[in-house]
Amino acid sequence: MAIGKGRNSKRSTSGSYTSTVTTVVFVALCVVGLWVLTSNSIISPQTTTRTSAASSFSSSAANHLFSKPADRKDPPVYEDSQGDLPDDAIKSDETKPLQATNDEDEQKPQEDQPKSEETQNVEGGEDNNGKQEAEQETSGENKNEEENPPGENQSSAGEEEKQKENEPLVTEESFEKNPEAEELTQQTKDEQSNENQGVDENKSQEQNQPEAEAEKREGESEENSQETQNQITEEDQQQRLQQQEQEQQQTQEQEKSDMSDETLQQSTQPESQETTSDEIQQKEEPQRSQESSQTTDEDKEQMKDQKIQSESNLQEDNSNQEGKQGTTTKDKAPSVSFPGGESSGIPKESKESKKSWSTQADQSENQKERRKAGSDGTIYGYTWQLCNETAGQDYIPCLDNEKAIMKLHGRKHYEHRERHCPEEPPKCLVPLPEMYKTPVEWPKSRDKIWYHNVPHTLLAEVKGHQNWVKVTGEFLTFPGGGTQFIHGAMHYIDFIQKSIPDIAWGKRTRVVLDVGCGVASFGGYLFDRDVLTMSFAPKDEHEAQVQFALERGIPAISAVMGSQRLPFPSRVFDLLHCARCRVPWHVEGGTLLLELNRVLRPGGYFVWSATPVYQKLKEDVEIWEEMSALTVSMCWELVSINRDKLNSIGAAIYRKPTTNDCYEQRKHKRPPLCKTDDDPNAAWYVPLQSCMHRVPVDGAERGTRWPEEWPRRVQVPPYWLNKSQMGIYGRPAPDDFASDYQHWKRVVQKSYLNGLGISWSNVRNVMDMRAVYGGFAAALRDLRVWVLNVVNIDSPDTLPIIYERGLFGIYHDWCESFSTYPRTYDLLHADHLFSKVKKRCKIAPLMAEIDRIVRPGGKLIVRDESSAVGEVENLLKSLHWEVHLTFSKDQEGILSAQKSLWRPDTFVASS
C-alpha cells in the first residue's frame, strides 16, 4: 500500500523525495522482471512436454496398441532409457491377459494407458534397478541446474519439479519417429509464448507510464537472457538425444539375448501383476485429475478424438471375446518360444524337395480340375445361414448332391454312393439335432451314445437281433456284436488270431481296413489289441451306420467300393477284413477284389467272413467257386478256413504273394498285369482298373520287406527312405523324418498338452488336416485318441510313410467337402493349411466345412502364417467360436479355438 500510495501521490519538487521514490520504483520493477523471467522458464518446458506427449501418442502409440505387428519391436515411448531393466519390467500391454487389457482400455483415457504402463514397469523392476534410478535422479538434477540458473526463485523451481512428476516423460526417439509431432510441438510452443506475452501486456496496462518504460528496458534484457537459455536447452537436447540412442541400441541387443528362452508363462503376466496395475491406476487418479485440469482446450479436444478412435478400434478387436478364459499374446521378441516353451522354429518345406516328391494331383490322371480363387480377406461380420438340404442335420455336401446324382447315366457300380461335390462349395452351416448333448467320453462311448445326438432307430429295428445297436431309454447301446459275431467282437478277434498266429495283433498287424463295417464294432474292439482300423461303409439304407461309429469314438469314413479307387496309397494295409460286407468280389473279372489287392501290403492277409465260406446254399456254392478261381488267378494263397462254433460262422483267410513268380507262371494271364505307366499310388478320382500291379522286388523299394513290429515302427525311418533323397524340409529324407518326429514330440509335450487350455480327456476323434510324416499323430500315440492323417492332393505324397510307421490316413482336397458326417471330430489340427489352400480356393467354405465336422465343444488348432491365422480368427469369430489363444512371432502364428452351440436363425433360400 505504501508503494501504491507513493506511486499515486503528486510529485514533490524536493530532490531527496524524488530520489527515494525513483529508487523504490526501480527495485519493484526488478522484482517484477525477475518474476516474469522465472515464469517463462517454467512454462516453456511444461508446454513442450505435454504437446510432445500428445502428438507422439496420436501418431504412433494408438497404432502400436491396437495393430500389434508381430515382426516389429517398438521401444517404450514414455521412458528416457530402458537401461538394464528385466523383461518383466519392460513388457507392454500386449502381454497382459486379454480380459484385463480390455477392462483397462475401456475404463481410462488412451493417454493415461502408457503412463500406467510406465509406472508398472518401474515398480516391477524396482528391486533390480535402484542404481539406475539414482543415476537418472542425479542426471535430472544437473539438467535442472542448467535450465534454472542459480538465484532464481526457489518456489518456482519446486513448482517445476512437481509439474514434471505429474507429466509423462518423452524420449527423444519420439521426436525422431514423429516429425509431425515435433512440428506440432513447435507450433504449440509459439502459441504458448504468444499467450504469455498477452498476459504480460495485460499486467503492464495496470501500471503507470514510468513503470511501462522500465518494463520495456527489462524486457530487452529478458529476451537476451531467454535466447541464451534456449541455446543451452537445444544443445542439452542434442546431447541427450545422442546418449539415449546409444543406450537404446545397447538395450535392444541385451533384450534379444536375455529373452531367447522365454515361455508363454513369461509372456503372459500373472494375476498378481494385474492387481498391481489396478492399484497403480487408483493411485494415479489424483495425478491424472490435476493434469487434466491444466490441459488446454485444444489438448482436450485432441484427447477426446483419440479416445473415440481408440474405443472404436478396441470394440472391433474384442468383438465376440466376452467370457473367454484364454489369453491373447503377441510377442515382439524375435527369439521368444511358442506357448509352453516349445521351439518357435516351425519347419519350412524346401522348394528343392518338391522336385523329388510327387503329389496326388500329379499321380491321378483324372483328377478333377480345381478353380482358383483369391482370399475373402477380413470377413469380420460375415453372415451365415443354415443349409436348406433334404439331408438336414446329416448333410454331407459331396455325398448328398441330389442334382449331380440325378444326372448320372447309371447306378450299377454304385456311382450314386460316390463323391459328387457341388461346383460351388457350400457356405452354409448344418443345423444341430434337437436336444443335442455333449458326447459320451471314451471308452464308455463304445457301449452307448446319446440317442438325440444320432436320432435314428431304423438300424436298431433291422439289426437289433444281431446285437448291432439297440434303443435303451435315452441311449443307443451297442452290445459289441455284428452279423458274423453276434456274441461279441472280442471272441471273433481272438478266433482270427488262433486261425493264423502269424497275424499277431498289435505287433506284426497294426493297420487294418474294414470293408462294409456297419457300426464298426470290429475296429472298436481291435483297439484293445493295439490295432488301428480304418472302417468304411457307404451312406445307404443302413441308416447312419458310419455316424454311429464316429459318435462311438471309432475311426470311420463314408465310402463305397464302386467305380473309383479308394483314397489310399498302394501296399499300405497289413490286413483287410470283410464280414458279410455285401460286396460282389467275384463279378466283372474281380475288379473290386483287385482294388483290395492294390492297397494290401505284400504278405498281408485278407479275412473273408461270409456265408459262401460255410453255407451250402446253391447261390453260396456258386459264389465260392467263382471266388476260389479268382483268388487262384490273383496268386492269393488260401491259408486257412476255420469255423467259429460260438457264432456259427466260418472265415477264409488269404495271403498276398511277396514275389512275382506266380504271376509269370500263370497260363491264362487273367487278370492281366497293369501297364508299367499305371501308377498304383494314384488314387484321387481315378477309375478302377481290372489289372494287378507287380510286387516290388528291388530291396530299396517300398513293399519288399515287412515293417518293423509295433511300436518300434512308429519312430524308425522306413528302410526305403534313401539318404540321397531330399526330405520335405530340406534334409536327407531319414534325417528329415527323425527331426520331424522330435519336433512334434516337443510341441505336443511342451505346448499342446498344457499350454492351449485343452482338456484331453474329452478328446477322442482327431484329424490332422495337413499331415506330412505323421509326426503329430505319433506324438499323441500314448493318449486315448486316434488321429486321421490327411495328406493334401497338392502336397508331397508322404501318406505311404505314415502307414509304414503304423499310423493311417487318407488323401483329400480341402477345396471340397470331406466324406464324413457332421459333428464327428473332437479336434482338428491344421499346420500351414490355410496359407496353402487359399492359393487355389476360398477360405470361407473351408471354415464352413470345419464347422460342419467339428462337434459342439470341439477344438481347432491352427499353425500358419500370421496373415492366415488372422483371417481364420476373423471367420471363427463370425461363427461364434471361442478363440482361446492367439500367438505370433516372425510372421508365424498359432491359434486355439472352441466351437459353440450357436446356429443361425435363417435358412439359405432353396434354389
Structural class: alpha/beta
Rounded Rg: 39 Å
Binned, the helix content reads: 40-55%
In round numbers, the mean pLDDT is 75
Largest sheet properties: 8 strands, mixed
Strand order of the largest sheet: 1-17-18-16-15-12-13-14
- What is the overall number of helices? 28
Oligomer: single chain
Q: What's the overall geometry?
A: elongated
Instruction: Outline the low-pLDDT stretches.
Output: 1-13, 41-212, 218-233, 254-336, 366-379
- Which range does the strand content fall in? 5-15%
Task: Characterize the structure shown.
This protein is an alpha/beta fold and 911 residues long. It has an 8-stranded mixed beta sheet. The longest helix is centred in the N-terminal third of the chain and has 53 residues, at 15-67.
Quickly describe the structure.
By secondary structure, the chain is of the alpha/beta class.
Q: What is this structure's SSE topology?
A:
Elements: H1 2-8, H2 15-67, H3 98-107, H4 112-124, H5 130-147, H6 154-165, H7 172-177, H8 179-204, H9 209-258, H10 264-267, H11 271-294, H12 297-317, E1 327-328, H13 360-363, H14 402-406, E2 448-450, H15 458-463, E3 470-472, E4 475-477, H16 489-499, E5 511-515, H17 521-526, E6 532-537, H18 545-551, E7 556-558, E8 573-579, H19 591-599, E9 600-609, H20 611-614, H21 618-633, E10 637-644, E11 649-655, H22 661-665, H23 733-752, E12 765-768, H24 775-779, E13 786-792, H25 799-804, E14 809-812, E15 825-831, H26 834-837, H27 843-853, E16 854-865, H28 866-878, E17 882-889, E18 892-898
Parallel strand pairs: 1-17, 5-6, 5-8, 6-7, 8-9, 12-13, 12-15, 13-14, 15-16
Antiparallel strand pairs: 2-4, 3-4, 9-11, 10-11, 16-18, 17-18
